[in-house]
From TrEMBL:
The lineage of its organism: Bacteria, Pseudomonadati, Pseudomonadota, Gammaproteobacteria, Pseudomonadales. GO terms for molecular function: ferric iron binding; protocatechuate 3,4-dioxygenase activity. The keyword Hydrolase does not apply. Signal peptide: none annotated. The keyword Nucleus does not apply. It comes from the Bacteria. Belongs to the intradiol ring-cleavage dioxygenase family. Residues 52-80 form the Intradiol ring-cleavage dioxygenases domain. This is Protocatechuate 3,4-dioxygenase alpha chain. InterPro entries: Intradiol_dOase_C, Intradiol_dOase_core, Intradiol_RC_Dioxygenase, Protocat_dOase_a. The gene is pcaG_2.
Amino acid sequence: MPVQLLPETPSQTAGPYVHIGLALEAAGNPPREQEICHVMAKPGAPGEHILLMGHLYDGNGQLIRDAFLEFWQANHEGVYDTGYALEKSFNCFGRTATTDVGEWTINTVKPGVVKNALGFPMAGHINVSVFARGINIHLQTRLYFDDETEANAADPVLNLIEQPHRRESLIAKRCRVDGKLAYRFDIHLQGESETVFFDF
């Protein structure tokens, strides 16, 4: 008798319940005792402390208020640490979600220069994954810093983007919030200002 194979289960969109399951504070609930959250760097962590912030927009330019974002970066010396532990002063991985006003924030340190597989230096950057309803497979992009002009110009990944003006969609803008160094990084899922997303 021939073996009958079941079809592959189709991908499902993320949400609209990501807040309830993965970002309790954004849903107005107290966080769990053990929670991967938006504080990647505690006050004692070495490096230049920064606040990252931004909005997430859909193809019509409307704010997305129930999205979920994950961040993966090197530390201030350009080293990735794969071991996550809540008690550490800095973790290379963090999560956040957009709030009811459509804004997300994360506290971290500015990452150092990392070399790619061929040994070429890459400008300090943060890898960002975006989860939201209507997206079957999460989107992946990168965040660079506008005050790293020389390093950005030589970055091998940024230079893969054929249209130079599109590279601007990956550049976070330096600002200050309550006297603290911050960078604004707005993400556009579609439309004229669409952020560049990567297939890796």
